[in-house]
What we know:
Elements: E1 3-13, E2 19-27, E3 32-39, H1 45-56, E4 63-66, H2 69-82, E5 85-88, H3 93-99, E6 118-119, E7 128-135, H4 136-145, E8 150-152, E9 169-176, H5 181-191, E10 193-201, E11 206-213, E12 217-224, H6 227-242, E13 247-252, E14 262-266
Parallel strand pairs: 1-4, 4-5, 6-12, 8-14, 9-13
Antiparallel strand pairs: 1-2, 2-3, 7-9, 10-11, 11-12, 13-14
Helix pairs in contact: 1-2
InterPro entries: Tab2-like (IPR009472), Tab2-like_C (IPR046761), Tab2-like_N (IPR046760)
Domain RNA-binding protein Tab2-like N-terminal: 3-101
Pfam family, one: Tab2-like_N
Amino acid sequence: xxxxxxxxxxxxxxxxxxxxxxxxxxxxxxxxxxxxxxxxxxxxxxxxxxxxxxxxxxxxxxxxxxxxxxxxxxxxxxxxxxxxxxxxxxxxxxxxxxxxxxxxxxxxxxxxxxxxxxxxxxxxxxxxxxxxxxxxxxxxxxxxxxxxxxxxxxxxxxxxxxxxxxxxxxxxxxxxxxxxxxxxxxxxxxxxxxxxxxxxxxxxxxxxxxxxxxxxxxxxxxxxxxxxxxxxxxxxxxxxxxxxxxxxxxxxxxxxxxxxxxxxxxxxx
Length: 269
């Protein structure tokens, strides 16, 4: 399968104080496939179609991955006409590495406006939750041995592929959702979780969990005023550093350890 990661964004102002747009396309072998600039008035789906055809040569890509919300609409229109699938995802590490080359004092192409976090709908929240750990080896066994209806564990996020030792404790959050378990897991699957972060407040005496999902969405999973839980949250973030950022979110109907509803591997880029 031929996969591209692409971006189309306002790059800089020209001498006429009009925006110059940049199209950048990379493949998964870390090659820059194509790069082209255009004037503001030329930035359109039709222009993109022409450039994609030129970049592709004899074979169009099967998938184009997009991380910038403002670029998604134009790429979607262009890709539909070309028969290419567009995937909206934050996981465009190769493209972002290339974009780093264009950072200047006046231009930061990785900057994206993010809305403030929204409360998780009350109808979805589970009965209880806790911070947890699982060894990388045990996680692999859990994924392969247990039937989990909703499973999002991409190959590139498996501990073995990140060079994480089998004995490392991976940090995570477990939610016991009772009868809401499947409903919560389905909602999460639609939201496409990216990372789950502990946010400290009030000098370590309270805090909360913020879920990053989709392209820019943020959700307040829970807040609390408990010094012991806040301390556990700090340890959770510290353990992320030891696990190369890899962490997990596990949904269970109860704490029996017999049934699992959903599992996500998460990692900031």
